[in-house]
Design brief:
disordered N terminus, about 200 residues, two-stranded antiparallel ribbon, single chain, mainly alpha
Length: about 200
């Protein structure tokens, strides 16, 4: 079998993922489902020379070998319960995600802009830092921290200006007192998610 991904006129791997799934780049965390690749091939005919795809496993290997996503990040054949588990995430990568959330929040006034976020890079680096069996669960866990960091920034701005909405300008110094440690000190695990003590400010 000879199947090739054609990267002609694509500026990045994330653009390819966007074309395959019709997903916005700011939603990317490196998780792929081979069934979507098959459907995209059949419907859009992009980048695959041979149409006789025999198995999802063969497609998985092509995806991994092409570098589109990190090995272990395809959930084909896995249930959500296998992926949606909280595990320990290193302080190093929690800090990297916090820093990126804060940088992006300040730059975009709280708007999740897929063209300027670097979250995918943080997720990919994290995935490569852990063993393959922990990559799906670890990515889910890091997403829970990401959500709460962004929620804490929004809550801090709204505490100063209750009428603030995502996209409105605000005084950057409002976030000076918000640290990763201060946010994490308020977090509690609730099943397979994180909430802030008593109130979930998820956005």
């Amino acid at each position: 079998m000879n199947i090739n991904f054609n990267f002609t006129n694509l500026t990045s791997r994330y653009n390819l993922m966007s074309q395959l799934f019709g997903a916005k780049k700011n939603q990317s965390n490196g998780l792929l489902n081979p069934a979507n690749i098959i459907n995209a091939k059949n419907q859009k005919g992009i980048g695959m020379a041979n149409k006789s795809v025999k198995s999802d496993k063969e497609i998985e290997e092509i995806i991994y070998e092409s570098g589109i996503c990190v090995r272990g990040m395809i959930m084909n054949g896995k249930s959500e319960s296998e992926m949606h588990q909280m595990i320990d995430v290193s302080e190093e990568y929690r800090q990297k995600m916090f820093d990126e959330c804060k940088r992006h929040f300040l730059q975009e006034n709280g708007v999740a802009n897929g063209d300027t976020t670097r979250r995918s890079e943080v997720f990919r680096a994290y995935q490569l830092s852990v063993k393959e069996d922990d990559r799906l669960k670890g990515t889910w866990s890091l997403q829970q921290y990401e959500k709460q960091y962004s929620s804490a920034f929004a809550a801090a701005v709204k505490a100063v200006n209750p009428n603030w909405k995502n996209g409105d300008p605000f005084d950057a110094s409002t976030l000076d007192s918000i640290t990763r440690e201060s946010v994490e000190s308020t977090l509690v695990q609730s099943g397979n998610t994180l909430t802030r003590k008593g109130v979930d400010y998820s956005i």
